[in-house]
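*** Query protein ***
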Amino acid sequence: MGDSTLYGIHDPTFETTTPWLIYEQAQCAIGTRKGLVLSEPEWLTDPWTHHPKTRKDMLVDILLEIPSLYENVDNMNLLPDGKIKSSHRHNIQKMNYVIMTRLENWNTRYAATLPTTYSGPHWQTLSSVETNSIADAHVMAIYWASSIHAYHIYRTVSDGECDFIGLDPDDCCRSIIRCVPLFLHPSTGIFRQHLIPFPLMTADRHLNSVQSTKLQAERDYLQALRESPKFAAMHQFISSMQSQIVTF
């Protein structure tokens, strides 16, 4: 239970495990590739006895499982080739398939329709943004980022193949980047620093993992952001956090 002690959390109560803290720790754990005590059953249930979970809480429950998968992959890779390693690989595949199915079910039940922000070179042009749209984009970006991570884990333990129908990591990456204009809108204020990093860094890592000819419009848009003075402070902030997000 080292991670609970590290952050000063000792009992699974709503007061000590606030939703935002849980989300922040899930992001960090993906970077360290270590499982979290927060993903254990009592931590997923006890704090919510008198507080119904929101759609984001239910999504973060799934996200909390991903660091353990990375840890299992690392442990598997330390084993010599043989039956034991094959057994570990098969178990990871099964666990990851469950996570991907849970993500698909979450999407079916809670997916939000976002305003169109992608129109070639003009996708930063937004006259106004409603608060609900920002909240929807934030939750959907977490879903897409979680799906990208789950996809890459499954692909890693399946010798480069991924036959899970219904999950397109390129589309998830594209969807995250199309949300960026919403997050950069002045109405989000300083809160954007909490909305953008994890999904955007995940999308950027995915871009770096696929052929350079794919998702060209998204690559061009991110490059334009990096070169924009208006994005300089945010780019510096995100760059400082890059090491916290796992490389696929």
